[in-house]
Prior knowledge:
This protein is mainly α. The chain has one domain (22-166). The chain is built from 8 helices and no strands. The protein has helices at 2-7, 21-46, 57-67, 76-97, 101-118, 125-135, 138-143, 146-166. Helix 3 runs parallel beside helix 8 (146-166) and helix 4 runs antiparallel to helix 5. The longest helix is centred in the first third of the chain and has 26 residues, at 21-46. It starts with a helix and ends in a 14-residue tail after the last helix. 38% of the residues are buried.
Amino acid sequence: MLKDYFNKMAGSTKSPPRVHFSEIAWSWIGAFLGIGAVAYIHYSKFENSDLLMIIGSFGASAALIYGATKSPLAQPRNFIGGHVLSAIIGVTCYQLLNDYMWLASSMAVATAIALMHLTKTLHPPGGATALIAVAGSEKVHNLGYLYVIMPVGIGTIIMLIIALLVNNIAKNRRYPEFWI
Length: 180
């Protein structure tokens, strides 16, 4: 029984083939433009305010929506829904449990994952978005539920627009695979 358990960890398939250089180039262009747009707004408009436009989980989202465009986890429903729902969960957990940060952190991530599963919006960077709401800076905490709108909601919409534009330029790329 123990042997069977550890044998599961050996894997069951081979590593996928390397992607073509053009796929790498389009992924780079999309990520550069998407993160660039959000970062530009952040650093030119909000750097000296209590507001922010960019969060770390957007980097992981960029890898999905620009680099893994066919993945179910990268589709608009998952991308926007996963981030927004996770942001709501994260802010709520921080507000209810901030005296117990270890509990707020674990509750936020676990609940965000469960809610994303229930709503068919699983987007792995959403777990980080929930965690940022709890473990983020005072600037993040001061936003409260505004965090859900900005940076999360507006940031995902900006990145989605760029994903729609860039990912459909090349003849062999298509995004999204589905909306709902």
